[in-house]
Design brief:
9 helices, sigma factor antagonist activity, Jelly Rolls, FecR_C, alpha+beta, globular, Ferrdict_sens_TM, 390 residues, 2 domains, 25 strands, 4-stranded mixed beta sheet, FecR
């Protein structure tokens, strides 16, 4: 068994133990790490930030019903909708993989052709361009905070405050645009309190202030966004609606993710909590939690399926979560975050599959090295912003 597969299996077992507040015996008996390395893993797992993550995950678990799911999924490596367990495994896997790779833990037999790296490509960061109603563009940067009337940004997120008199009449709605480039991410709080996470290569149009009692409408022009919507009950029943391409998503107050990239024919809407209606000119589709609609914009059809929610929203938590994804699809995701152009030397490599979780703060070189050491790719070459998979 490949070492990477062993680490994934070990991480699942450790995660199960941690969520039950049990000693991770699987780590004690593992031959993958030395005693010092095992101690380092335990120390990092008991760090305050990691404890906070675990407590957040545990709060979402129905201890009696969901643990049967965990045990069955440990025994049978199949797809699961149990995302808190997957999140815990992601925390453990990130720590274990970092320690294992840093010590050169893959054997020479895991290696293939040499790696060619002419420069280092760093991960993406918080960055965005704010376009005002006047057309003026503002680069949102951590080094230069931005403040205007009822809005401020610290370079990681931008917050619109409700007017001092929320009942006052809005005669004309002013719109802003928030554009997140390739290699970026950003957060936005709308004037109604709705929280939005924008992924790389995304653009959102929204009003600076909503009209009281009227539908709250924003437009995802392209890209991916996660919405945590302020309930309609707090806004005189006003519904929240996201328009994008060939569909609209109507909600009362809920959490959901929309992925609608320009270079993809399918628009994906994933519901985490609450209920939404996905509308096209021809169809209306209701979604319940853990469901995803796939709108084919070419033939205007909608398919609905059960999904592992964690895989769909892990990006906003700083994690790539891939569940049997093709290397082509994976490199498409990575190309947006690292702002790179990817080419495959052999077309058959595009169909190689990968299951696992990776931290978004890894360098692209580290991620590709993991793929190589797992025998998914033979080698790779990095030259400026170009990556060649071999």
């Amino acid at each position: 068994m490949l070492n990477l597969t062993k680490i994934l299996s070990l991480s699942k077992q450790i995660a199960a133990s941690l969520l039950k507040d049990e000693k991770p015996e699987a780590l004690d008996s593992s031959e993958l790490f030395s005693d010092d390395e095992k101690e380092e893993i335990i120390n990092r797992l008991t760090d305050e930030s990691e404890i906070a993550s675990r407590l957040h995950l545990k709060a979402q678990i129905d201890r009696k019903a969901d643990w049967e799911k965990i045990q069955s999924n440990l025994a049978l490596p199949q797809k699961t909708n149990y995302w808190p367990y997957a999140a815990a495994a992601a925390i453990v896997l990130g720590i274990c993989t970092t320690i294992f790779v840093s010590k050169g833990g893959f054997s020479a037999t895991d290696m293939a052709d040499p790696i060619i790296v002419n420069n280092q490509i760093v991960p993406g960061d918080d960055k965005a361009i704010l376009t005002l109603e006047t057309g003026e563009e503002v680069n949102l940067d951590k080094d230069v905070p931005y403040t205007a009337e009822n809005v401020q940004s610290d370079g990681e997120n931008i917050v619109y405050n409700e007017a001092s008199d929320p009942e006052s009449t809005v005669k004309e709605i002013a719109y802003n645009f928030l554009t997140v480039p390739r290699g970026g991410q950003f957060q936005l709080t709308l004037s109604d309190g709705t929280h939005v996470w924008l992924n790389s290569d995304s653009k959102l149009k929204y009003p600076v202030r909503f009209k009281v009692g009227e539908p709250r409408v924003v437009e995802l022009l392209y890209g991916e966004a996660y919405f945590d919507v302020s309930p309609s009950t707090m806004h005189k029943g006003a519904k929240f609606e996201v328009i994008n391409r060939a569909q609209s998503v109507e909600v009362l107050g809920t959490e959901f993710n929309i992925k609608a990239y320009k270079d993809e024919v399918t628009v994906y809407t994933t519901l985490v909590e609450g209920q939404v209606k996905v509308r096209t000119q021809e169809l209306v589709q209701d979604l319940v939690p853990n469901q995803q609609s796939q709108l084919n914009t070419a033939n205007r059809t909608i398919d609905v399926s059960q999904v592992d929610v964690y895989n769909e929203i892990a990006w906003k938590e700083g994690i790539f979560s891939f569940d049997d994804k093709s290397l082509k699809d994976i490199m498409t995701v990575l190309s947006r975050w690292y702002d790179i152009d990817v080419a495959f030397e052999e077309k058959n490599l595009e169909s190689e599959r990968f299951v696992g979780v990776l931290k978004k703060n890894y360098s692209i070189e580290t991620i590709l090295s993991i793929f190589q050491k797992a025998n998914i790719i033979n080698a790779f070459e990095i030259n400026n912003k170009s990556v060649i998979i071999k």
